[in-house]
Specification:
Length: 156
């Protein structure tokens, strides 16, 4: 398929834009919550105590993809196959699960949503120690911006 000079330039520009974003992400300084190892006089390495609220903040910084309306997810509950389901986040940001009801997941990362579902399963006395995993099949709420000398710039 022959390519015109214009289409080659458009694809080159898009490739450069993507690569520059990846490069800048790799060159960022470490987050302020980074664990620093302290080696004492005995040679034993100690690390600061884990703080759950600090851990949640660092997970959110490292995992920028959050769930939103229209996202397609697969929920798996280990040992309770009746609770496994394929779901789409509703326009108001909720999902519906059998025996649990509605759970708000919009604005949460997939790991935070797993924790919210596990908590609801525990609170409703459905499972004692639930193990939930979420696989995001499609981020419908996320956009990609195409800018520059392209035929149709915009957010897609």
């Amino acid at each position: 398929m022959p390519r015109t000079w214009s289409s080659i330039c458009q694809w080159s520009f898009l490739l450069v834009a993507v690569l520059s974003q990846v490069g800048s992400a790799q060159n960022r300084p470490p987050t302020p919550n980074a664990v620093q190892k302290d080696e004492g006089p005995t040679g034993i390495v100690s690390t600061p105590a884990d703080n759950p609220s600090e851990q949640t903040k660092s997970q959110r910084i490292n995992s920028t993809a959050v769930l939103g309306p229209g996202d397609e997810i697969d929920i798996t509950v280990y040992g309770a196959s009746d609770l496994n389901q394929h779901n789409r986040v509703s326009p108001d940001g909720n999902i519906s699960m059998p025996l649990v009801g509605y759970i708000r997941v919009a604005g949460l990362t997939s790991s935070e949503a797993e924790g919210a579902i596990e908590e609801q399963l525990r609170q409703n006395n459905i499972l004692n120690n639930p193990q939930v995993s979420i696989f995001v099949k499609e981020y419908a709420s996320s956009n990609v911006s195409v800018v520059g000398e392209v035929t149709k710039p915009g957010s897609y």
